Structures are given as C-alpha cells and as structure tokens.
Amino acid sequence: MTASSSHREGPIDDNDWPTSFVSRVLSPDGGRVHGYDLESDVARNYTHPELILLALTGEPPDAVSGAGLDKILTFLSVAPPLDAPCHAAGLSRLTGARPAATLITASIGLSEAARSLLEEHQALLGWLDDPSGPFPRAAQGVTGEDRASVSRLEVALRPTGLSVPALRHEPTRDQALLASLHACGLRRAEQLLAVLVIAALPTVFAEALAVPPMRLDTYPLKFPEIRYIEDEADER
Amino acid sequence: MSDDPPVIYSRVAHFGYGDTRFCGYGVRADLVGRCGYWSTISLALGGPRLSRNDERILDGLSVASVNAEPRIWPLRLSRVLASEGSALVGMAGAVLGIEGGLMGASAMDGSARFLVSLRQLAEAAADPEEAIEAEVLARLAAGRRLVGYGVPFREGDERVLGALDLVEVEDFTRKPYWKLAATVERIALTQKITLQMNIGAAMSAICLDMGFTPEQIGPLAALLLLNNMVANAFEGAEQACPLFRHMPREFVEYQGPVARKTPRALAREAE
Q: What is the DSSP letter of B225?
C-alpha cells in the first residue's frame, strides 16, 4: 500500500484542534503533583496515605487526616475471597491469564463493587455533607460483626486524633468507613471510589496470585448450582 | 435462612455430550448452518432467534456504522491501551473506558431509553405530537442533551445515510421508533441546525423497531461497533507506537498549580 501524498478532506482535517495536550495535576515529567515535588518534597515529608490525600484533594493533608487514612486503608483492605472482585480475579488466574490481565480483572471488580457501594450509600453521603437531619439507618440493620468492627476502628483511630462524628450513631461497618474517609477530607464520590479500589487492590491481587494457574480441577464448578432451564418444568 | 443449597437458574446454556444447549436450542442440532452470528447474539440477550432478514439488517447496521477513524477519542483510547502490544487489551479497554459516557454503546443505550420514554409519554398524552414537541423543546431549553442527536463539523452523519440505505429498502422508515426519531430530529432542527440524528438515534430506533429493549441495545451496540475498536486495537498493538506509550514532554502544556513547597518542607527549611 502506498501512502497518498494528497490532502484528504474531512471533519478532523478541515477543522482546528489544539496542538498540545494539557495536564492539570501532574507536571509534564510526572515529577510534581499539584505543584509539589514528589521525590524531593513529598517523599521526604509525607507518607503514602498522605500522598493519596494530596493527589485526590489537591492540597497536602494535615497529620491527623494522614494518620487516620493510614488506618482506614487497612480496614478497607479487608476483602472476602468470595466477594466478586477476588472471585473474578481468581478465576482469571485459574484460566492461566497473564498477571496483568488478572490485575485488570481485580481492578474492574473492585471499581464495580465500589461504585455499587457508593450508590447504596447516597443518603449517608448526603448526611455527611449536611448532618443536620437524622442519621440514615442502613436498610439491613447493624449486625454484631458491624459493631465489633466499628469498635476496632475506633480503637485504631484513637491515637490519630481523627474525629468521626458518625461513629456515635451506631453505623454499619461500611457507613463507619465511608464516614471516616469523609472526615479525612475525601468528600466527593470520585475520591471515595479511588480510595476504595486502591485500598483493597493489594489484598485482592495477592489472593488471586495464590490460585494455581490451570488447576481447573480445584474450582468447584458445580457450586453454586447453575441450573439450565428451557421451560417452567425445568424449574421444579 | 433456608438450608437448601442455593440454585441459580440460567436460560443460557448447558454443556452436554455431543451437543450443547444454548438458549433453548441445540447448537449442532438447531443452530449450525441454520442461523447466523446475530441470531446467537439476540438469543444471548434474551431475545428471539432472528429471521435471516433481521440478521441481515444487523449485519448491515454494523457495516453502515463503521467509522474507525483512529484520531477520534474512543478509538484513540483503544490505540493508547494497545500500545504495549495487546490487541485484546485495547479492544476491551476501549469498550470499558467509555462505559456510561456519551459515546459508543453507552450513547446507543441512552438514546434507546430516551426514545422509549418519549413514546410512553406520547401514548399517555391526549395530543401525542404536542407532547413530543413539548418534551423535546423543554429538554433543549433546560440545556439537556438529546442523546443520539448532534452532528458536529459536517452537514449530516454519513453513517445515518448508510443506515438509511438499509432501512428504506426494508421499509423501516414506516416503523414507530424510526418515525419518532425522525420527528425528534425535525423538532430539534428548529432550535439548532447541528442537531441532526446521529448514528446513536438511528441505530437505537432500528433496534427498537426490531423488538430489542434498551437493556439489550447497550450490549448489542457494543458488538455492532466493535469492528471499529478491533481495527484500531489490532493496528495499535502491531505498531506498539512508542509515542503512545511515552508522549514527549514538549507536547504537554501544564495548566496546574505552579511549583511550590509543602508546609512540612517549608517548616524544615525554617528550622
């Protein structure tokens, strides 16, 4: 195929477009975020959780928020192995996929789970921005496991000095963690989405990597039962 | 909680000996040589096995909607993702990367929902035509997008012209959703000259008139448009263009905050 030397007309060719790309957070070499030098400044003076806050909010956090997020990230890294992100990533690994594909799968699963969690907690997020009304009770109620975990969260956060008013309202574990993130300065759904994924990615991926590739005999194909039906009689 | 083990019912498939059941049919017994790819997709989406004619329509739509220009944003995305050498990553990443937005399959989904809601509004109204006009004008006045309408930089969407070639032959232009889509275009054009029907509304209307639901049209549209992603992902992976992996810094204009020091850095300096 020879390249044509003649100009081809079209909506792209015949209209003006910008001649450069724009970056708004990262410097062109990637070395600065929101104007702060990552290697010579942020790495020396801030922890990684604090970098996450800086990146997502635009400003360096105070020590209380940073210390608080450090603890919250660990709580958010709890990922039951049969919840969708870990299960899907494990299946990816089982099929012999490249590790990068397994990581992609874990990221997709975690992003979807986080999106769903935030949609379920719209009322809470509204209350956190404006706590003048009653605290939104979770539809499924607060379990004993919720109370125990929230109690452990309070113990973990105490040395940090982070104040989370919502913890006084007997929240579920999910409510407590979202409220704690809000107390660190993460107020927008997109910011919460990022932290939910970042926190759990290492543990989810670690579990997936532990799955022996192509050991298809180790996976319970018949549980749960997926029963094929063609008509109503098959459902009985 | 019941002690019975959980059972998930599926109408999709059963892996048997000698043949596999798929959506109520034996693959070898009923489908191979008797229906085409688009029938299997329709069945997969919970729809019917398609007539050969309907399969031909979807084939034609997929061809008519080809615009694989590498420079446009979703296909550029496909190339950038494929630049490390994987066509599959480029294809899948591009489909996922624009999910929920206003381009590609998500636009078809949105357009289909818009047309369905408009039809429901019209059917409930004493004067359907007036109701449609009022709704369209109200949306435009409120600054809301008419998903499936808008053709920038040119007089019409060339893909719609291709789709029209198809549907006029099949007499689709007399069908309710196509007529509704055309009515919306007529109303929208009284407000803004660039609000012609684009392939989003055209494809949605055709698929709705074929009997697909908006929920089915999203995934269906992803497949109808996949040829565009495949072309760019495949070439993108072949070329593994270094420019897409690492764009030279001189092409980037930084518009963020100026270089500054953190409070802790300043405090250290003050010590």
A: T
- Mean pLDDT, contiguous 10-residue spans, chain A (236 residues): 63 91 96 98 98 98 98 97 95 95 96 97 97 93 96 98 97 98 97 98 98 94 91 64
Q: How far is B79 from B239, CA to CA, in rounded Å?
A: 9
- Contact flag B264-A60 (C-beta cutoff 8 Å): yes
Nearby residues of B31 by Cβ (< 8 Å), 6 or more positions away: B22, B25, B39, B40
Specify the 3-state DSSP secondary structure of A13. coil
Q: Report ipTM (2 d.p.).
A: 0.88
Q: Which residues pair with B22 in a beta bridge?
A: B13, B25
Q: Which residue of B has its CA nearest to A34?
A: B257
CB contact B10 to A (< 8 Å): yes
Query: Residue B10: which H helix or E strand, with range?
Result: strand B7-10
How do B13-15 and B20-22 pair as beta strands? antiparallel
CB A129 within 8 A of CB A142: no
Is A29 in CB contact (< 8 Å) with chain B?
yes
Chain A residues close to B21, C-beta within 8 Å: 228, 230
Distance CA B102, CA B11 (A): 32
First vs last C-alpha separation in chain A: 62
Sign of CA dihedral B194, B200, B201, B206: positive
Quote the CA–CA distance of B90 and A99 in Å, as a whole number: 17
Q: Which 8-state DSSP code applies to residue A4?
A: P
Q: Is A42 on the interface with B (CB under 8 A)?
A: yes
Compute the nearest-CA separation of A126 from chain B (Å): 23
Compute φ and ψ for B151, nearest 5 degrees.
-130, 95
Gap between the terminal Cα atoms of chain B: 64
